[in-house]
Amino acid sequence: PASGSPAGVKVHKELSLGRGCMIDYHLSPAREHDSPHLVVDERYRGMGLLFDLGYVSLKRIRECDERGIRYVSRLKENWKPRIISLHRGDVRAEICPEADLDITLADERIALDGRCVDATVVIGKDQYAVTSRLVMIPGPDGYLIYLTNLPRDSHGPKQVGDMYRLRWEIEGDNKVDKSGAQLDQIRATTESSVRIQLCAKLLHTLLVDVLVHRDNLERALERRVRRAPLHKLALSYAIRTRHAALVAALLASATPGEWERIALDLSEDARDPNWRRRPSVLDRMLGMIAPRGRPRRKKLRDCRPSAASFRDRGIERRMHHEAN
Protein backbone atom coordinates (compact mmCIF):
# COMPACT_ATOMS: atom_id res chain seq x y z
CA PRO A 1 0.00 0.00 0.00
CA ALA A 2 1.04 3.62 -0.69
CA SER A 3 3.84 2.46 -3.01
CA GLY A 4 2.09 3.39 -6.26
CA SER A 5 1.51 -0.22 -7.35
CA PRO A 6 -0.89 -2.98 -6.25
CA ALA A 7 0.19 -4.80 -3.10
CA GLY A 8 1.03 -8.49 -3.35
CA VAL A 9 1.49 -9.29 0.34
CA LYS A 10 -0.19 -8.05 3.50
CA VAL A 11 1.66 -7.87 6.81
CA HIS A 12 -0.65 -8.34 9.79
CA LYS A 13 0.97 -6.99 12.96
CA GLU A 14 0.00 -7.08 16.61
CA LEU A 15 1.49 -4.15 18.50
CA SER A 16 1.79 -3.77 22.27
CA LEU A 17 0.93 -0.15 23.04
CA GLY A 18 2.59 -0.34 26.46
CA ARG A 19 5.90 -1.44 24.96
CA GLY A 20 5.44 0.09 21.53
CA CYS A 21 6.79 -3.13 20.03
CA MET A 22 5.49 -5.72 17.62
CA ILE A 23 4.58 -8.91 19.50
CA ASP A 24 3.33 -11.03 16.61
CA TYR A 25 2.93 -10.94 12.84
CA HIS A 26 2.04 -13.09 9.88
CA LEU A 27 1.82 -12.67 6.12
CA SER A 28 -1.11 -13.21 3.78
CA PRO A 29 -1.98 -12.59 0.12
CA ALA A 30 -3.07 -9.00 -0.42
CA ARG A 31 -6.38 -10.06 -2.00
CA GLU A 32 -7.61 -11.62 1.27
CA HIS A 33 -9.69 -9.58 3.72
CA ASP A 34 -8.11 -8.49 7.00
CA SER A 35 -10.77 -9.78 9.40
CA PRO A 36 -10.18 -13.59 9.23
CA HIS A 37 -6.53 -13.08 10.18
CA LEU A 38 -7.29 -11.95 13.74
CA VAL A 39 -8.23 -14.80 16.08
CA VAL A 40 -9.60 -13.67 19.45
CA ASP A 41 -8.84 -16.50 21.89
CA GLU A 42 -7.88 -17.09 25.53
CA ARG A 43 -4.45 -15.48 25.20
CA TYR A 44 -6.15 -12.06 25.26
CA ARG A 45 -8.17 -12.71 28.42
CA GLY A 46 -7.83 -9.81 30.84
CA MET A 47 -6.28 -7.64 28.13
CA GLY A 48 -7.63 -4.99 25.77
CA LEU A 49 -7.80 -4.67 21.99
CA LEU A 50 -8.00 -1.61 19.75
CA PHE A 51 -9.76 -2.69 16.58
CA ASP A 52 -9.20 -1.21 13.17
CA LEU A 53 -12.44 -1.07 11.18
CA GLY A 54 -11.11 -3.85 8.96
CA TYR A 55 -11.10 -6.26 11.89
CA VAL A 56 -14.25 -5.33 13.82
CA SER A 57 -17.35 -7.53 13.50
CA LEU A 58 -20.34 -8.56 15.59
CA LYS A 59 -18.81 -12.00 16.06
CA ARG A 60 -15.57 -10.48 17.34
CA ILE A 61 -17.43 -8.23 19.80
CA ARG A 62 -19.30 -11.28 21.11
CA GLU A 63 -16.03 -13.20 21.51
CA CYS A 64 -14.52 -10.33 23.51
CA ASP A 65 -17.49 -10.26 25.89
CA GLU A 66 -17.39 -14.04 26.38
CA ARG A 67 -13.66 -14.06 27.18
CA GLY A 68 -13.48 -10.95 29.36
CA ILE A 69 -11.53 -8.92 26.81
CA ARG A 70 -11.90 -5.14 26.71
CA TYR A 71 -12.20 -3.51 23.31
CA VAL A 72 -12.52 -0.07 21.71
CA SER A 73 -13.53 0.46 18.09
CA ARG A 74 -15.14 2.97 15.78
CA LEU A 75 -18.75 2.35 14.75
CA LYS A 76 -19.07 1.02 11.22
CA GLU A 77 -21.09 3.26 8.91
CA ASN A 78 -23.44 0.47 7.83
CA TRP A 79 -24.28 -0.62 11.39
CA LYS A 80 -27.63 0.49 12.79
CA PRO A 81 -27.45 0.57 16.61
CA ARG A 82 -30.68 0.66 18.61
CA ILE A 83 -30.76 2.50 21.93
CA ILE A 84 -31.52 0.42 25.03
CA SER A 85 -30.78 3.09 27.62
CA LEU A 86 -29.22 6.54 27.65
CA HIS A 87 -26.76 7.28 30.46
CA ARG A 88 -25.46 10.66 29.34
CA GLY A 89 -26.70 13.29 26.92
CA ASP A 90 -29.12 16.17 26.53
CA VAL A 91 -32.51 14.50 25.86
CA ARG A 92 -35.01 16.88 24.24
CA ALA A 93 -37.89 14.42 23.71
CA GLU A 94 -38.98 10.96 24.77
CA ILE A 95 -37.00 8.08 23.28
CA CYS A 96 -38.84 4.83 22.52
CA PRO A 97 -37.28 1.48 23.57
CA GLU A 98 -34.80 0.18 20.98
CA ALA A 99 -35.11 3.37 18.95
CA ASP A 100 -32.84 3.62 15.93
CA LEU A 101 -29.89 5.88 16.75
CA ASP A 102 -29.81 7.57 13.33
CA ILE A 103 -33.53 8.38 13.44
CA THR A 104 -33.27 9.61 17.03
CA LEU A 105 -30.46 11.98 16.10
CA ALA A 106 -32.23 13.14 12.93
CA ASP A 107 -35.36 13.96 14.97
CA GLU A 108 -33.15 15.93 17.40
CA ARG A 109 -34.41 13.92 20.36
CA ILE A 110 -30.81 14.01 21.58
CA ALA A 111 -29.16 17.42 21.29
CA LEU A 112 -25.71 17.43 19.72
CA ASP A 113 -24.59 20.73 21.21
CA GLY A 114 -21.01 19.85 22.06
CA ARG A 115 -21.81 17.52 24.96
CA CYS A 116 -20.81 13.87 25.09
CA VAL A 117 -23.35 11.07 24.67
CA ASP A 118 -23.13 7.71 26.45
CA ALA A 119 -25.65 4.94 25.77
CA THR A 120 -26.18 1.19 25.86
CA VAL A 121 -27.12 -0.10 22.42
CA VAL A 122 -27.86 -3.36 20.64
CA ILE A 123 -26.53 -4.07 17.15
CA GLY A 124 -27.69 -6.83 14.84
CA LYS A 125 -30.80 -8.99 14.90
CA ASP A 126 -31.97 -12.24 16.50
CA GLN A 127 -29.16 -14.63 17.44
CA TYR A 128 -26.53 -12.33 15.92
CA ALA A 129 -27.39 -9.32 18.11
CA VAL A 130 -24.77 -7.98 20.53
CA THR A 131 -25.04 -5.39 23.29
CA SER A 132 -22.36 -2.74 23.58
CA ARG A 133 -21.61 0.64 25.07
CA LEU A 134 -21.75 3.50 22.57
CA VAL A 135 -20.11 6.86 23.21
CA MET A 136 -20.19 10.00 21.10
CA ILE A 137 -17.67 12.79 21.59
CA PRO A 138 -17.43 16.07 19.65
CA GLY A 139 -14.63 16.28 17.12
CA PRO A 140 -13.34 18.88 14.67
CA ASP A 141 -15.74 17.70 11.92
CA GLY A 142 -18.73 16.47 13.88
CA TYR A 143 -19.20 13.74 16.44
CA LEU A 144 -16.99 10.65 16.68
CA ILE A 145 -18.79 7.43 17.61
CA TYR A 146 -17.10 4.54 19.41
CA LEU A 147 -18.10 1.10 20.65
CA THR A 148 -16.55 -0.32 23.81
CA ASN A 149 -17.16 -2.51 26.83
CA LEU A 150 -15.01 -0.44 29.19
CA PRO A 151 -16.88 0.25 32.45
CA ARG A 152 -18.44 3.68 32.89
CA ASP A 153 -17.15 4.10 36.44
CA SER A 154 -13.52 4.04 35.24
CA HIS A 155 -13.65 5.44 31.69
CA GLY A 156 -15.79 8.37 30.63
CA PRO A 157 -16.60 9.14 26.98
CA LYS A 158 -13.53 11.35 26.47
CA GLN A 159 -11.27 8.72 28.03
CA VAL A 160 -12.68 6.17 25.58
CA GLY A 161 -11.88 8.57 22.73
CA ASP A 162 -8.33 9.02 24.04
CA MET A 163 -7.91 5.25 24.20
CA TYR A 164 -8.87 4.91 20.54
CA ARG A 165 -6.52 7.76 19.61
CA LEU A 166 -3.69 5.50 20.74
CA ARG A 167 -4.17 3.79 17.38
CA TRP A 168 -1.95 6.58 16.08
CA GLU A 169 0.95 4.67 17.65
CA ILE A 170 0.15 1.83 15.24
CA GLU A 171 0.09 4.21 12.27
CA GLY A 172 3.41 5.65 13.42
CA ASP A 173 4.91 2.17 13.56
CA ASN A 174 3.61 1.46 10.06
CA LYS A 175 5.29 4.65 8.88
CA VAL A 176 8.59 3.40 10.29
CA ASP A 177 8.04 0.19 8.29
CA LYS A 178 7.43 2.03 5.03
CA SER A 179 9.55 5.19 5.27
CA GLY A 180 12.28 3.99 7.62
CA ALA A 181 12.70 0.31 6.68
CA GLN A 182 11.29 0.76 3.13
CA LEU A 183 8.96 -2.20 3.54
CA ASP A 184 6.99 -1.13 0.46
CA GLN A 185 10.03 -1.05 -1.84
CA ILE A 186 10.83 -4.75 -2.15
CA ARG A 187 12.03 -5.70 -5.64
CA ALA A 188 12.46 -9.45 -5.11
CA THR A 189 10.65 -11.87 -7.44
CA THR A 190 10.79 -15.25 -5.69
CA GLU A 191 8.75 -16.14 -2.62
CA SER A 192 11.78 -17.00 -0.48
CA SER A 193 13.53 -13.71 -1.32
CA VAL A 194 10.39 -11.71 -0.55
CA ARG A 195 10.03 -13.42 2.83
CA ILE A 196 13.68 -12.80 3.70
CA GLN A 197 13.46 -9.10 2.85
CA LEU A 198 10.15 -8.68 4.68
CA CYS A 199 11.58 -10.29 7.82
CA ALA A 200 14.72 -8.16 7.60
CA LYS A 201 12.71 -4.94 7.35
CA LEU A 202 10.36 -5.96 10.16
CA LEU A 203 13.44 -6.77 12.25
CA HIS A 204 14.74 -3.25 11.59
CA THR A 205 11.49 -1.76 12.90
CA LEU A 206 11.48 -4.11 15.89
CA LEU A 207 15.03 -3.03 16.77
CA VAL A 208 13.93 0.62 16.64
CA ASP A 209 10.90 -0.14 18.83
CA VAL A 210 12.99 -1.96 21.44
CA LEU A 211 15.53 0.88 21.66
CA VAL A 212 12.75 3.46 22.09
CA HIS A 213 11.09 1.31 24.75
CA ARG A 214 14.33 0.88 26.71
CA ASP A 215 14.93 4.62 26.56
CA ASN A 216 11.41 5.26 27.89
CA LEU A 217 12.03 2.82 30.74
CA GLU A 218 15.23 4.68 31.66
CA ARG A 219 13.38 8.00 31.58
CA ALA A 220 10.71 6.62 33.90
CA LEU A 221 13.05 4.82 36.33
CA GLU A 222 15.47 7.73 36.58
CA ARG A 223 12.60 10.24 36.63
CA ARG A 224 14.19 12.06 33.71
CA VAL A 225 10.86 13.09 32.26
CA ARG A 226 12.38 16.33 30.97
CA ARG A 227 14.65 14.50 28.59
CA ALA A 228 13.18 14.33 25.12
CA PRO A 229 12.10 10.83 24.03
CA LEU A 230 13.48 9.14 20.97
CA HIS A 231 11.51 9.67 17.77
CA LYS A 232 11.01 6.31 16.05
CA LEU A 233 11.31 7.50 12.48
CA ALA A 234 14.31 9.73 13.27
CA LEU A 235 16.01 6.79 15.01
CA SER A 236 15.28 4.59 12.00
CA TYR A 237 16.96 7.11 9.68
CA ALA A 238 19.90 7.48 12.08
CA ILE A 239 20.48 3.71 12.13
CA ARG A 240 20.31 3.52 8.34
CA THR A 241 22.84 6.32 7.87
CA ARG A 242 25.24 4.66 10.33
CA HIS A 243 24.88 1.10 9.14
CA ALA A 244 28.51 1.02 7.97
CA ALA A 245 29.78 2.07 11.41
CA LEU A 246 27.51 -0.47 13.09
CA VAL A 247 28.69 -3.31 10.84
CA ALA A 248 32.33 -2.33 11.36
CA ALA A 249 31.81 -2.27 15.12
CA LEU A 250 30.26 -5.74 15.02
CA LEU A 251 33.02 -7.23 12.86
CA ALA A 252 35.82 -5.60 14.84
CA SER A 253 34.33 -6.45 18.26
CA ALA A 254 34.23 -2.82 19.28
CA THR A 255 35.02 -1.80 22.85
CA PRO A 256 32.26 -0.58 25.19
CA GLY A 257 33.55 2.95 24.74
CA GLU A 258 33.09 2.79 20.97
CA TRP A 259 29.57 1.42 21.35
CA GLU A 260 28.86 4.21 23.81
CA ARG A 261 29.97 6.79 21.24
CA ILE A 262 27.73 5.24 18.56
CA ALA A 263 24.81 5.18 20.98
CA LEU A 264 25.40 8.83 21.88
CA ASP A 265 25.44 9.83 18.20
CA LEU A 266 22.20 7.95 17.54
CA SER A 267 20.60 9.51 20.60
CA GLU A 268 21.59 13.03 19.60
CA ASP A 269 20.11 12.64 16.12
CA ALA A 270 16.94 10.82 17.17
CA ARG A 271 15.62 12.98 20.03
CA ASP A 272 12.18 14.38 19.24
CA PRO A 273 12.48 18.20 18.98
CA ASN A 274 8.71 18.75 19.22
CA TRP A 275 7.85 16.53 22.16
CA ARG A 276 7.23 19.34 24.66
CA ARG A 277 5.12 21.33 22.23
CA ARG A 278 3.19 18.37 20.81
CA PRO A 279 3.35 15.37 23.18
CA SER A 280 1.63 12.23 21.95
CA VAL A 281 -1.55 10.89 23.54
CA LEU A 282 0.45 8.01 25.01
CA ASP A 283 2.98 10.41 26.57
CA ARG A 284 0.14 12.35 28.16
CA MET A 285 -1.43 9.19 29.56
CA LEU A 286 1.90 8.07 31.00
CA GLY A 287 2.65 11.52 32.41
CA MET A 288 5.84 11.83 30.34
CA ILE A 289 5.49 15.54 29.60
CA ALA A 290 7.51 18.62 30.54
CA PRO A 291 7.02 22.41 30.57
CA ARG A 292 7.35 24.09 27.21
CA GLY A 293 10.20 26.28 28.42
CA ARG A 294 11.07 29.61 26.85
CA PRO A 295 11.16 30.55 23.15
CA ARG A 296 14.61 30.21 21.65
CA ARG A 297 15.03 33.96 21.13
CA LYS A 298 14.16 34.92 24.67
CA LYS A 299 16.80 35.42 27.29
CA LEU A 300 17.36 32.81 29.97
CA ARG A 301 16.20 35.19 32.71
CA ASP A 302 12.78 35.31 31.02
CA CYS A 303 12.37 31.56 31.32
CA ARG A 304 9.58 30.34 33.57
CA PRO A 305 10.76 28.86 36.91
CA SER A 306 9.21 25.48 36.09
CA ALA A 307 11.36 25.15 32.97
CA ALA A 308 14.56 26.94 33.99
CA SER A 309 16.28 23.86 35.37
CA PHE A 310 15.58 21.95 32.17
CA ARG A 311 17.12 24.71 30.04
CA ASP A 312 20.17 24.87 32.31
CA ARG A 313 20.78 21.14 32.01
CA GLY A 314 20.39 21.32 28.24
CA ILE A 315 23.06 24.03 28.05
CA GLU A 316 25.38 22.01 30.30
CA ARG A 317 24.95 18.89 28.16
CA ARG A 318 25.74 20.76 24.96
CA MET A 319 28.84 22.36 26.51
CA HIS A 320 30.01 18.97 27.81
CA HIS A 321 29.49 17.37 24.40
CA GLU A 322 31.39 20.16 22.61
CA ALA A 323 34.24 19.90 25.12
CA ASN A 324 34.61 16.18 24.47
Task: Give the structure's gist in a few sentences.
The protein contains 10 helices and 11 strands. The chain is an alpha+beta fold and 324 residues long.
Description:
The protein is of the alpha+beta class and 324 residues long. The chain has a domain at 33-165. The protein is 40% helix and 19% strand. It is built from 10 helices and 11 strands. The chain has helices at residues 58-67, 101-106, 157-165, 167-180, 191-221, 232-241, 243-251, 256-270, 281-286, 305-323, and strands at residues 9-16, 21-29, 48-50, 70-74, 82-88, 90-91, 99-100, 110-111, 117-123, 130-139, 142-148. The strands form 3 sheets. Strands 3-4-11-10-9-5-7 form a 7-stranded mixed beta sheet. Strand 1 (9-16) and strand 2 (21-29) form a beta hairpin. The radius of gyration is 24 Å and the shape is globular. The two termini are 45 Å apart.
Q: Note poorly predicted spans.
A: 312-324
Q: What is the rounded distance between the termini?
A: 45 Å
Structural class: alpha+beta
Q: What is the radius of gyration computed over CA atoms, rounded to a whole number of angstroms?
A: 24 Å
How many β-strand runs?
11
Mean pLDDT: 83
- Shape label: globular
Q: Strand sequence of the main sheet, in spatial order?
A: 3-4-11-10-9-5-7
Helix content: 25-40%
Organism: sediment metagenome
Protein name: Protein containing Transposase, IS4-like domain
Region (Disordered): 293-324
Biased composition (Basic and acidic residues): 310-324
